[in-house]
């Protein structure tokens, strides 16, 4: 039976899972959760995930959440090899570092800034957040100095995780190619991946939502 994914396309974390599943050739049974209607707070969903976050995955009775945990689980269970999440300890440590960077820095920032806009009808002023976004872009630029993908020569789940996050930030504050050439090339490479289609819908939805609610260049 196909694993069930509770998700919303607007959420970058959910898109990371969709991109990973597409790369693995895995079909997921998708159940949409509308955070603006607080559907994550229903007793049914809280019973599944007391932390009430999406994405949440149920696979044959096994429940897990947090996109980073989910994508490493999916590769471990459904991947034909360890291409996307190397078992070599040093390669894996680098992938993990990037995943934690996404979780603790980029994803955390996106949720703090965007969630009040998306789900509480508040407005954002992009000027107030420019400095923090530039810091993230500058770090990504350095991470991509020597290799085409975020954790080395090969695409990994760290790319699956950071592509939706960074392209969402790009909607809020467009990345200038002369200022961030490595980051711009990485985004172009990402856009050519077949799995990028799992990111595109959510990005379009995010752009539409933000256009009506923020004072930014998106
Ligand atoms: N680090 C988590 C973040 C999950 C998260 O906070 N998701 C947000 C949407 S982007 C959510 O479900 N918010 C609803 C809530 O916390 O009630 C991940 O990568 O899955």
What does this structure look like?
The chain has helices spanning 12-24, 43-48, 67-78, 89-119, 130-143, 157-172, 181-191, 197-213; strands at 4-7, 29-32, 56-59, 62-65, 124-125, 214-215. The chain has 8 helices and 6 strands; from the N terminus they run E-H-E-H-E-E-H-H-E-H-H-H-H-E. The protein is globular and about 50 Å long. It has 2 domains: 4-78, Glutaredoxin (3-Layer(aba) Sandwich), CATH 3.40.30.10; 89-215, Glutathione S-transferase Yfyf (Class Pi), Chain A, domain 2 (Up-down Bundle), CATH 1.20.1050. With 218 residues, it is an alpha/beta fold. The mean pLDDT is 95. The strands form 2 sheets. Strands 2-1-3-4 form a 4-stranded mixed beta sheet, with helices on one face. Residues 11, 13, 35, 40, 52-55, 66-68, 103, 107, 111 line the site of glutathione (GSH).
């Amino acid at each position: 039976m196909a694993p069930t994914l509770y998700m919303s396309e607007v959420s970058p974390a959910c898109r990371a899972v969709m991109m990973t599943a597409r790369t693995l050739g895995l079909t997921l049974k998708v159940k949409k959760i509308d955070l603006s209607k607080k559907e994550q707070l229903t007793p049914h969903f809280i019973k599944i995930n007391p932390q009430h976050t999406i994405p949440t995955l149920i696979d044959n009775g096994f429940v897990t959440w947090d996109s980073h945990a989910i994508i490493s689980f999916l590769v471990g269970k459904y991947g034909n090899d360890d291409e996307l999440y190397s078992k070599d300890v040093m390669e894996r440590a680098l992938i993990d570092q990037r995943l934690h960077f996404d979780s603790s820095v980029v994803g955390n920032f996106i949720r703090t800034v965007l969630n009040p806009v998306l789900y509480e009808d508040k407005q954002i002023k992009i000027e107030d957040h420019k400095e923090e976004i530039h810091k993230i872009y500058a770090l990504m630029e350095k991470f991509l100095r020597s290799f085409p993908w975020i954790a080395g020569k090969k695409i990994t789940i760290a790319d699956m995780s950071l592509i939706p996050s960074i392209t969402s930030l790009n909607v809020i504050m467009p990345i200038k190619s002369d200022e961030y050439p490595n980051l711009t090339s990485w985004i172009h490479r990402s856009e050519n991946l077949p799995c990028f289609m799992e990111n595109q819908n959510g990005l379009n939805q995010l752009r539409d939502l933000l256009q009506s609610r923020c004072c930014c260049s998106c």
